[in-house]
């Protein structure tokens, strides 16, 4: 089946890379058909599926592959201005295809070294998208921040993988792993080894205190860069963290409490910071740090509730934050400002945008019927089972997330609008379509939530 589908996908990518202003909609249609043919061949209800010695799939990898394909398509639909202005469209499309290939290699790899190579490969197209199609001159500094943080954190991971030798390379080989750690790593060095193995993924998620690259990268990136950063690349850190923690589960209690506590404190502090920001894009970017703090807490508890909740939160946050970045970009293209002081009164001019913004904000605060609600319940149960004292900060961080989300909604949608731009503020069908495609799966995935429970059963 895969041999039949791969040529079809390749033809879709070739068709997409040769797109021009005349045939871009035919190309989009062809890509959508190829996407659904691919997804129809993958089943979430199967367990671990070994395709070859290099490629292995399970529920988590297939879920994130679905998310990657879906968000790449949303990126393409939200970048119509780049194609209409012919702003290096072939290079832009090539970067999106390279990014998708690196993500697929990461999620399908059954070998840690192959996963590491694909993990680093995803940096290159993301850096080009940020630096090539960003809005402000500060995008160069943002790109350097993005590269340096990720590379310096991932070098210890590579050294540790090489130190542990080939017996640690396979993600699915469980035999004699305890012996490898017990005899190859002494007690004093085991804690350092644990930090070296997980630090690259904590920076990628990102964890509080290693998050400074994220707001810079988001603020300077074009809409597609922000969508793929929040939608999939942050989830690449969570995916790698789950894969590594499954191998060193027995040493999880060494230092996991430190990172879990730091994430809880970070959620609270980020919530307080967001309550005084006046940049719409910065608000959405910092909310990603708060949500990924929830995921880190769930994963480091080492419990099934936390793992399943973390997976659901990664899927739901990828869709929700990508939709919010789309909305902010639509406002920015009209007013050329992301300031809350200028973006006011949208409800009086474009009420359909206000409705879409409200539904996205509801998913951002884990309101029903979004799948965010179920994922946050799972994460709360796992953190409560880990340590009851964590519940002092966990609800506070979640509550502050609701506070700054409604602060963002009320300030941007209500109030007196900017009179100068009243004449050309209108909504287009394609924009409403993209926002609707973000909202629809968030609210309907909860009807089929058992798809995400099979990974750790």
In what range is the share of β-strand residues? under 5%
* Individual helix count: 20
Please state the average pLDDT score. 79
Q: Which percent bin holds the helix content?
A: over 70%
Counted up, domains total 2
Distance between the termini: 27 Å
**What is the β-strand count?**
2
Compute the gyration radius: what is it? 21 Å
| Biggest sheet descriptor | 2 strands, antiparallel
In one word, what is the shape? globular
Structural class, please?
Answer: mainly alpha
**Uncertain regions spanning at least 5 consecutive residues:** 1-8, 10-23
What is the ordering of alpha helices and beta strands?
A: HHEEHHHHHHHHHHHHHHHHHH
Strand order of the largest sheet: 1-2
Overview of this protein structure:
The longest helix has 32 residues, at 304-335. The chain has two domains: 1-41, no CATH class; 42-452, no CATH class. 46% of the residues are buried. It has 20 helices and two strands. β1 (49-50) and β2 form a beta hairpin. It has a two-stranded antiparallel ribbon with strand order 1-2. The chain has helices at 2-17, 24-41, 59-78, 80-84, 89-108, 112-121, 123-133, 139-163, 177-184, 187-204, 213-220, 223-245, 256-274, 280-300, 304-335, 346-349, 351-364, 371-386, 394-413, 429-444; strands at residues 49-50, 56-57. α10 (187-204) packs antiparallel against α12 and α17 (351-364) packs antiparallel against α19. Helix content is 71%, strand content 1%. Residues 1-8 and 10-23 have low confidence and may be disordered. It has 457 residues and is mainly α.
């Amino acid at each position: 089946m895969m041999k039949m589908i791969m040529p079809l996908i390749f033809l879709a990518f070739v068709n997409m890379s040769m797109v021009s202003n005349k045939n871009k909609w035919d190309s989009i249609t062809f890509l959508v058909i190829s996407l659904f043919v691919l997804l129809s061949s993958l089943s979430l209800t199967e367990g671990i599926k070994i395709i070859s010695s290099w490629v292995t799939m399970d529920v988590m990898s297939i879920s994130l592959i679905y998310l990657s394909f879906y968000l790449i398509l949303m990126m393409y639909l939200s970048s119509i201005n780049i194609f209409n202005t012919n702003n290096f469209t072939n290079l832009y499309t090539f970067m999106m295809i390279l990014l998708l290939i690196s993500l697929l290699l990461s999620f399908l790899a059954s070998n840690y070294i192959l996963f590491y190579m694909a993990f680093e490969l995803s940096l290159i197209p993301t850096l080009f998208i940020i630096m090539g199609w960003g809005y402000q001159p500060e995008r160069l500094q943002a790109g350097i921040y993005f590269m340096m943080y990720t590379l310096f954190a991932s070098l210890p991971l590579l050294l540790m993988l090489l130190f542990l030798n080939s017996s640690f390379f396979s993600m699915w080989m469980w035999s004699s792993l305890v012996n490898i750690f017990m005899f190859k790593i002494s007690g004093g060095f085991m804690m350092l080894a644990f930090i070296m193995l997980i630090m690259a993924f904590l920076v990628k998620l990102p964890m509080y205190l290693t998050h400074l690259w994220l707001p810079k990268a988001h603020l300077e990136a074009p809409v597609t860069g922000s969508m793929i950063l929040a939608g999939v690349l942050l989830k690449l850190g969570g995916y790698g963290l789950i894969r590594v923690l499954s191998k060193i589960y027995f040493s999880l209690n060494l230092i996991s409490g430190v990172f879990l506590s730091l994430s809880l404190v970070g959620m609270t502090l980020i919530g307080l910071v967001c309550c005084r920001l006046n940049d719409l894009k910065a608000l959405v970017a910092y909310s990603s740090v708060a949500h990924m703090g929830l995921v880190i807490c769930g994963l480091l508890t080492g419990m099934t509730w936390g793992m399943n909740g973390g997976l659901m939160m990664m899927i739901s946050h990828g869709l929700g934050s990508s939709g919010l970045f789309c909305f902010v970009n639509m406002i920015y293209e009209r007013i050329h400002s992301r300031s809350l002081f200028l973006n006011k009164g949208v409800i009086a001019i474009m009420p359909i945008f206000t409705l879409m913004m409200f539904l996205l904000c509801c998913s951002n605060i884990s309101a029903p019927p979004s799948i965010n609600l179920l994922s946050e319940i799972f994460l709360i149960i796992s953190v409560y089972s880990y340590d009851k004292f964590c519940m002092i900060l966990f609800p506070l961080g979640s509550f502050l997330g609701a506070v700054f989300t409604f602060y963002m909604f009320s300030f941007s949608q209500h109030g007196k609008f900017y009179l100068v731009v009243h004449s050309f503020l209108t909504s287009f069908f394609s924009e409403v379509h993209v926002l609707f495609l973000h909202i629809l799966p968030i609210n309907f995935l909860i009807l089929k939530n058992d798809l995400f429970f099979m990974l750790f059963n």
